[in-house]
Specification:
The structure is a homodimer. Chain A is α/β, with parallel strands linked by helices and about 425 residues long. Chain A has two domains: about 230 residues, Aldehyde Dehydrogenase, Chain A, domain 1 (3-Layer(aba) Sandwich); about 140 residues, Aldehyde Dehydrogenase, Chain A, domain 2 (3-Layer(aba) Sandwich), CATH 3.40.309. Chain A has 14 helices and 16 strands. In chain A, the strands form four sheets. Chain A has a seven-stranded parallel sheet with strand order 10-9-11-8-7-12-13, sandwiched between helices. A four-stranded parallel sheet of chain A has the order 5-4-3-6, sandwiched between helices. A three-stranded antiparallel sheet of chain A has the order 1-2-16, with no helix packed on it. Chains A and B meet through β2, α10, α13, α14 and β13 of A and β2, α10, α13, α14 and β13 of B. Chains A, B: It holds the Pfam family Aldedh.
Chain lengths: ~425, ~425
Amino acid sequence: MLQRTARTLARPCTPRPRRARVASRRLALLTTAEKDAALHAAADAVLAASDVVLAANSADVDAARESGTEDSILDRLRLTQARVEGIASGLRQVAGLPDPVGEVVRGSTLPNGLEIRQLRVPLGVVGMVYEARPNVTVDAFGLALKSGNAALLRGSSSAARSNAALVEALRGALGAQGLPADAVQLLPSEDRSSVTHLIQARGLVDVVVPRGGAGLIAAVVRDATVPTIETGVGNCHVYVHAAADLEMAEKIVVNAKTRRPSVCNTVETVLVDKAIADTAVPQLLSVLQAHSVVVHGDLPGLVPATEADWSEEYLTLDVALAVVDDLDAAVEHIDRYGTGHTEAIVTSDLAAAREFTARVDAAAVMVNASTAFTDGEQFGFGAEIGISTQKLHARGPMGLPELTSTKWVVWGDGHTRPA
Amino acid sequence: MLQRTARTLARPCTPRPRRARVASRRLALLTTAEKDAALHAAADAVLAASDVVLAANSADVDAARESGTEDSILDRLRLTQARVEGIASGLRQVAGLPDPVGEVVRGSTLPNGLEIRQLRVPLGVVGMVYEARPNVTVDAFGLALKSGNAALLRGSSSAARSNAALVEALRGALGAQGLPADAVQLLPSEDRSSVTHLIQARGLVDVVVPRGGAGLIAAVVRDATVPTIETGVGNCHVYVHAAADLEMAEKIVVNAKTRRPSVCNTVETVLVDKAIADTAVPQLLSVLQAHSVVVHGDLPGLVPATEADWSEEYLTLDVALAVVDDLDAAVEHIDRYGTGHTEAIVTSDLAAAREFTARVDAAAVMVNASTAFTDGEQFGFGAEIGISTQKLHARGPMGLPELTSTKWVVWGDGHTRPA
């Protein structure tokens, strides 16, 4: 039997990252069945706490409204009984996903007889810094727990009451299952100091994932001494190639822009090949305008574009449009302005499709498909913790395996290494 | 045909990281055959430049000797004709390794017919900060080139002439092959400013790998804004369990300490289980002393230990030894003082072996084997860029795949995502 009790029990006065670390040692040794039972218990606890959670959320929403928060953000902040039920069923869904911990990634028997295996193990303590949506609190907890990690959550102050009510329910469920409540801890959100402590808790926190706007992410990455994973900034392009099916291009551009303009995989710039610009540009403008999209650019009749139109995300029903000389120029434009999230080409030319996918440097490159498909659920991961736009460790939608590290386990029978 | 010419040619006055980035775009598109031909050409060029390299090295060694550098470091710095030949054959060996770029890591056809594949792609620009050994200059170039990356190398000032001669040979070979010479660039080593520029060239440099002592690594990690991979600090333990075969334990401890005391996988602390201490401790002391190892600890007759004996590497023929109550106490000691490199248990008890490997959090955990086996060549990788002691991206010996990222390539035929 494995020993499952940590010797050193952390007390409440111990700083949160240290308590998370102690909890993480136990989480790493849990069986899949134990973790899944805890996830179902947590789902039950969230449902049982619905009234408390909804009352807390109501106070958050009222305070945000009074301080002049815009409706779209209020909508993300607001919980309803149906949304609480959705949050709980998200936990049950994570319980149904395969457990990444213990998976043998590689392994072999060396010529000297040593047996080596590289196993997936939890990262340890995962920090999240995120914006208003309270569902992220529970989602992040669920994904962290399933992958054997303790979670340190720093949500937005506008959701403080909602998050506190949710985390109290989760901690109660863990305690009732005999698991350490410190597997999930909410950090204070009154000021930025809790973010600073989190991202500088080197040796205690194994990774911090910022989820939010470009400003939040840049600040976290700049000041962090713990490893971070950048997520979510998507200045995505659709390049309508000379050999594009124009009807297909229209459908893809409209879908990529209008399906949910505020998310990171929405298209922000359309690049049209010069060879077909005379017909393609008017058609695209017409269909975009029919969908209430405001088009920015240097062409006559468009809202005049500045540098920011090319380099920043709109996240609204706006899009920039430029004519480019050829595929080379399209790749160069993307190289200059893209954020490495998702880039797409529309073409019926195989060589152009191969060249575009080979040369464009991004987490996802689409051929004849909407940028909206870059998403953990769409890719079949069941859930996602965010979309990484960096190259180290994880790139693109991050599911459970991306919340793990590895460990080499080596078995011998007295092996020593010759000089 | 893929377009292989970068539009924007970088000029020599452009800063090195930007020139590396331009070069990396071409390297990413090279075929395996092109890269292997370049590696063989580079090996030929290093051999052809032997006289120049040896003369430069001689000047480095003389200057280092005059400034009072100790013999062991002079030995690492010194090149001979045989060592130059070894460096060249190292490049040919890398040419013989499998190319990681283009490997399909995962892939599926989604229910909607979208075909998704996750491919290995180069990281882009890889920075290395390292100490005296000039062979690292060529090894790092070779591994970076084979994995499609440009290399920015910042070696030690004591090896400046040797490194300059080697890099000139490598750049000449690349140019003669029609490849960008900026695929390898040596950074000035007179002062620390080139390190600072390298580790803060965010957006141009994709990863920096520091290789050297704990001080160097800590400074790089603290000041970097580009992602880093920590390597090489190994405060490794061997735990001689109550059910250990004592003869096996002696052989493993002696091998792990004396084979090459200055490398990171050497054992620095031996933990002996209390249950067998009365016989095991005298036997271990006797065999260690017979191998000229100085033993530090709190037991009578040992060199008295301070906190540093437990927390720091000796990298010499010294070792610390402590008696621990049981497996729990051994794991706690390792948890407190280990650096997450390699930890070993000697035992014939299966449950103890399983518990130790499950609970100890390190890049490699050995059962009945010397810590000296944590090494890329030993693990069958053919070559290694370093041994990562961090959890993100790579952990343990890093070979060619660890110098890559991934990209999702998605093929559709007009797919749009439903609301």
